[in-house]
Amino acid sequence: MNLFKLWNFHGGVHLDGQKQESGRAPLAVARLPERLIFPLQQRNGEDSKPVVAPGDRVLKGQAIACDDNPVIPPIHASSSGVVRAIEQLPLPHPSGLSGLCIAIETDGEDVATAFSGNPGYRQCSPAELRRNIHEAGIVGLGGAAFPTSIKMAAGTSRKVDTLILNGAECEPYITCDDSLLTHYSEEVLEGAKILLHSLQAERCLLAVEDDMPDALTALEKAMNCGDFETVQLVRVPAVYPTGGEKQLIKVLTGREVPARGIPADIGIVCQNVGTAAAVYNAVVRGTPLISRIVTVTGRGVKRPQNLLARIGTPLSDLVRQCGGYTSEAERLVLGGPMMGFDVPTDDLPLTKSVNCILVAGRNELIGEKQPLPCIRCGACADACPVNLLPQQLYWYGRSDQIERAVDYKLFDCIECGCCDYVCPSHIPLVQYFRAAKGKAIAKRREREKSEHARLRFESRQARKEQEKRDREESAKRKKLTLGASKAPEIVEAIERAKLRRAEKAGQASRNSDPTAKKQPEPSGPSAVKSPDAGAAEPGSAERTSVPEAKSPKID
Amino acid sequence: MHFPTAQAPYLAPINSVSRIMLTVQVALIPGLAALVWQFGSGVLVQCLIALVAAALGEAAMLSLRRRPAVPALKDYSAALTAILLAVSLPPLAPWWLTAFGTLFAIIIGKHLYGGLGYNPFNPAMVGYAVLLISFPQHMTAWLPPRELSGAALGFADAWTAIFSRTLPSELTFDALAMATPLDTLKTQLGLDRSLDEIQTGALFSGIGSRGWQWVNFGFLLGGLWLLKRGLIAWQIPVGFLSALFAMALIFFLIEPAVYPTPLFHCFSGATMLGAFFIATDPVTASTTPRGRLIYGASIGLLVFVIRSWGGYPDGVAFAVLLLNLAAPTIDHYTRPRVYGYPK
After folding, report:
1. Which residues of A touch B5 (CB under 8 A)?
2. Tens of pLDDT, residues A49-60
3. How far apart are CA B144 and CA B151, in angstroms?
4. Distance between CA atoms of residues A180 and A176, nearest Å
5. Domains, chain A, ranges and CATH?
6. Is the pLDDT of residue B149 over 60?
7. pTM of the model
8. Which end of chain A, N or C, is surrounded by fewer C-beta atoms within 10 Å?
9. What pLDDT score was predicted for residue B224?
10. Which residue stretches does the UniProt record annotate as biased composition, category Basic and acidic residues (chain A) (predicted)?
């Protein structure tokens, strides 16, 4: 296992893990709360549609919201009870906005629907397994909550050779994956086999950071007992952000996910270890995703620990089960201190994507920074795991040269916060980059809009030109047929009349306009004399506006 | 319960500008000690004058620019500029010269461009270049090193010499003033004397030049410590020194009668100070890894060119200023490959 060749990614930082507090305490099962709340919005995007109504009785594991869209997995009730309301409630989201939620009052009986597992999953096709995963409501449990079935489907159009299970929990404070691997190593390993079968891939690399000894021991023990030769356990150094998908892929395989690409482009699919366990539960036991392990930690909470908690449990309930807040509780962060976000209230439900509830004590975390000017020391560039030049991005972002910032690969920033952490001037770089990305997107939209308007205008112009041409064409054709049908004497008479009129007009203009003396004869008569003009005659004089033949002055 | 919110990341940064500036000043101590040992305490008096002038200049400019003075003074960047300039000046230079140079560096070199982080040129070198051009006589009047004279001026004597231009009775300024080895080399070579002849002179010995080699050792030591602390990028001193060494070696091998040894170049004049403390000023240097190598090497190259064929005995200040000018362009063409883009 230690002979496995590892690669390095550029940059990264060593962070104080702060994992002892929550990691040392045993995993506890959270109590059944009185109320469960399920936001209909799971990721940024559309809400899923409720399939229950207020007053309905629901069972544990029953789907309460579904959608035809495969990107929106269903939501299941995590205990039995009665739907009390479907209403606007605050969401656990950085925006702090509210959204439509299903609120269930639990009955304490915890009656479940009948789950039918499928231990013989090897007979199933990958597509069937993906449907199974989708119907179990499984999303990535590492924090991004991307629908797992969609990620697995990326393997259908590309050849995937490697499945990576991400157990590199690189953010400080968080120990939920450590706890999961320690207590549910078999579920994770079995889940890996299901995922491998569904991807039709040959090998699975299970990455665990080298500061997780309990998890490593448990995994090794489980691997010795079972048949897991397709799964390889790899210890990776505890450098932040090794647990980032792109960074982990680089560390394990030396390959890089192409810019704007996905891991499947280079034959890799990456899943969180918690997701693998959820897949095992869904496929073999038939239980949908209704609970997860969450770390409750920080100096602001009395007994930091990991809880196996039901999705939908109010955060305040979870904190209460960890002894409640200490007197110095100051901030509430969902996720880690580097890439998490803080929320103004604990009156929020646990969702599938929340891996950590960090209640910070006094001075444990910082708030608004007091930045000094950038001294261009380049510490940010040395720390950037993507090899960007944050000092240049900052410079361009600040001076509103968004195009230049984009040229310097603004959109490849993964917002990991390494640059912020090492910046001696205490500049909130990530905040600047988020804002710059927003501006760039707004500008792009603006440009697209004006481009669209331009195209519309041009096509309208083209259409009008074409219509005009068509009109002229048909007029010409008409004239031609008309001219051919007229008797020659009529044509002659018309021409004579024209000539006369033109001569008269010519005299008139000479009399009225002394400066026109030296001008040549008006073009009218000469036009008549020309042979092909004769053929085009009668109609054209009136119908089309060929000004040479008939200047407006003349009339 | 309700909580205040801010934007991630929430871990406190591990470094600060003041810490960097102070650490660099600590790293200057070995070189400064060598200067005091070899050339007397005059340099300490110069440091004091420069520090006071820099603080006054900085405070005045900040108040003119309507910025709070205390936070900026606390970043110690002006203090670093002051000390870097002070250690470059002849130890007994008159006080007004030091004060003028420092004020020029802070006011024109730094604040007129927008203050810390916005100055395109290294302020200390701006001050030095202005003094060298404006007062060449004062700027070339160095002292003989202790290795040669056997004694060096104490603090009190240096103080009176700098402020009232009077010396202890047995000494005169004319007797004290002495050209540096690089200066001597330039003048003597100009008189068509051979290098062998020149180097029999008392100023030349060992690997470099008397007195100066110790000063260079001091700055090298401090510089290596900075490298170890990760406060300066290795590419700049490595590029600087290897380019200077390589150029000196090539020409030494071609014509040893005219070109001194590479080691002489490395341990004379402001080489080590320049390589570790001047060229590495983050604000004015290149900031990409490859760019820093090019930037450092170009300075080393120019130092050799100016020393060998230019109009000044040492070329560090001008080489640095010229490359300051080129740094943005170098940065533009040396962007590193971002993750996920083709090699």
Report:
1. 96, 331, 342-344
2. 999 999 999 999
3. 9
4. 6
5. 19-31+118-334 (3.40.50.11540), 368-479 (1.10.1060)
6. yes
7. 0.84
8. C
9. 98
10. 445-475
